[in-house]
Design goal:
The chain is α+β, with helices and mostly antiparallel strands. The protein has one domain. The protein is built from five helices and four strands; from the N terminus they run ββαααββαα. A four-stranded antiparallel sheet has the order 1-2-4-3. A hairpin with a 2-residue loop joins β3 and β4. α1 packs antiparallel against α3 and α3 crosses α4. The longest helix is centred in the middle third of the chain and has 30 residues. The two termini are 15 Å apart.
C-alpha cells in the first residue's frame, strides 16, 4: 500500500488490502456514532465551571456537530469512488478533503477506543495475545487508521 499525488494535488491510496478498505468504509459510521460516551470523547468538556460549560455547549456544539456531519459526508463521497484493483483497492482523496480525512481518521480511532472499551494498556499490545477476537479486531482497525493517517501526513511521492 502506498500514497501518490496526482497533478491536481489529490492523493491516491493505492494497493489497499481488503481489510484496510473495509476499515475505511466503516469510518463514517464510527465518527457519527450516537453513543453518548463517543460523543463525549469527540466533544469533551471545555470548562470546569458548569455555567461556562453550558454556554460553550450552546454556542459551539452545534457548529462542531455540523463539522462532524460534513466530514462524514466528505468521506462517504470519496469512498463512493473506492475501486478494487488487481493489486488491491484504490481511493482518490481530493486535496481539499485531506484535512477532513486526517481529522476523521483520528476521530475514528477515538470512537473505536470507546465503542470497544479499549484500555490504554491494550495499545501496542501483541494482538495474538488478545483473547477476545472482537477486541483484537478493534485494536487492529485502530492501528490501520493510524497507519493510513501517517501515510497521508507523509504525503507520498510525486505523480
Amino acid at each position: 500500500m502506498h500514497i501518490r499525488r496526482d497533478r491536481d494535488g489529490g492523493v491516491w491510496v493505492v494497493g489497499m488490502p481488503a481489510f484496510v478498505a473495509d476499515t475505511l468504509r466503516q469510518l463514517p459510521e464510527w465518527i457519527a456514532s450516537a453513543d453518548p460516551a463517543v460523543r463525549e470523547r469527540l466533544l469533551p468538556p471545555a470548562y470546569k465551571d458548569e455555567r461556562a460549560e453550558r454556554e460553550w455547549e450552546r454556542l459551539a456544539h452545534p457548529g462542531l456537530e455540523h463539522l462532524f456531519k460534513s466530514r462524514g459526508e466528505i468521506l462517504r463521497q470519496d469512498l463512493a469512488s473506492l475501486k478494487q484493483g488487481v493489486l488491491g483497492a484504490m481511493l482518490r482523496i481530493p486535496e481539499p478533503h485531506l484535512s477532513a480525512w486526517l481529522s476523521a481518521l483520528n476521530a475514528g480511532r477515538h470512537a473505536l477506543f470507546i465503542l470497544h472499551e479499549v484500555d490504554p494498556g491494550d495499545l501496542g499490545r501483541d494482538l495474538q495475545a488478545v483473547d477476545d477476537l472482537a477486541h483484537a479486531e478493534a485494536l487492529l482497525r485502530m492501528e490501520v487508521l493510524g497507519w493510513v493517517q501517517q501515510l497521508l501526513i507523509d504525503g507520498g511521492g510525486g505523480e
